[in-house]
Amino acid sequence: MECSEVAPHHQKDSVKVAVNIRPLITPELLLGCTDCVTITPGEPQVQIGPHVFTYDHVYGSKSSPSSLIFEQCVHPLIDSLFCGYNATVLAYGQTGSGKTYTMGTNYTGEANCGGIIPQVMETIFKKVDALKDGTEYLIRVSFIEIFKEEVFDLLDASHAALRLDSGYVAKAAAPSRVPIQIRETVNGGITLAGVTEADVKTKEEMASLLARGSSSRATGSTNMNSQSSRSHAIFTISLEQKKVFSASDKLACNDYNILSSKFHLVDLAGSERAKRTGADGLRLKEGIHINRGLLALGNVISALGDEKKRKEGAFVPYRDSKLTRLLQDSLGGNSRTVMIACISPADSNAEETINTLKYANRARNIQNKAVINR
Ligand code: ADP
Ligand code: MG
């Protein structure tokens, strides 16, 4: 295919940050919570109490259809993917802030689901159908989670069978749940040793893999959300484009010219601090590990966003966590990254919401404008 897309490394921003404010949900309304977050009209700017933060985009579900996030933040990354560049979308925020809803990681196959992953699947297959340009497109899917600084395969069939029989406790402790090792290739690519990579030909096949892996995610109950996800879930779509040259094609030095790229869609673990979850023992340990990944991610993205430091060849701390190691070849460099910070508007969540907004703001290094009307 022809790539009209400007190479991402020539673009000013390889990392973009959006904020998605979900509406107040029933449990919050029943508790009498009020909405304490406002969007500055006409600006990608969020105000909470005396704090004002600016991003690339701000979405409030009262004013923005869910497809707008996809069109503005994610669709351009699919175009990059077809031009051979890796891409990553990350959903960040406290448990209950709407990460899974926004990403569509809990997709069960119903039509018109607004989540990002179902829309990505739809768009990729539509694009392949429309191109019909003599290129052979191979699409593969893997789905893993990082739980307590270990990587697990959510598409491992033997693990799924075990989970059905014994539920969460057996799953977390299951001897057959063998962690996967992260490997680096000679040219700096990241691979997972022995991970299930399923070939997919249709969006329905891809959706059923998403549903299968979603049901395998490690979840445990905390005070914040009985179904809270304590792991980072990474759904990866790999695209291999094989251009078959005709015998008369002077450019052809091999039979094939292969272009490979991958798209990581990441539903991060809850960002709340361990003390707020009322966690102790095992759950607290999970909290510490989770924070390590999120801390490292914040440091990596902020290092990538600092153009001056990057030009000086500043160190990017990819190796500080499994999450950042795994995403190493898909954050920075030629890749494009979008972080979607998800927040609840409820006053009861204000402290965590401010933490999320600060984290997302630091990730982007955007200069905040002065407080307006305050
Ligand atoms: P997280 O994955 O961050 O823990 P969830 O995605 O599970 O949060 O969302 C928590 C609750 O809020 C769910 O009941 C979900 O249906 C609801 N929710 C999240 N985002 C929205 C939204 N934009 N509109 C309506 N309900 C939402
Ligand atoms: Mg979730």
Automatic annotation (TrEMBL):
One GO CC term, this protein: microtubule
Positions spanned in the full protein: 1 to 374 of 600
Sequence similarity: Belongs to the TRAFAC class myosin-kinesin ATPase superfamily. Kinesin family. KIN-4 subfamily.
Plastid listed as a keyword: no
Subunit structure, interactors included: Homodimer.
Top-level division of the source organism's lineage: Eukaryota
Stated name of the protein: Kinesin-like protein
Lineage: Eukaryota, Viridiplantae, Streptophyta, Embryophyta, Tracheophyta
Domain Kinesin motor: 14-366
UniProt: ATP binding residues: 93-100
Molecular-function annotations in GO: ATP binding; microtubule binding; microtubule motor activity
Listed GO biological process terms: cell wall organization; microtubule-based movement; mitotic spindle organization; spindle elongation
Alphabetically ordered keywords of this record: ATP-binding, Cell wall biogenesis/degradation, Coiled coil, Microtubule, Motor protein, Nucleotide-binding
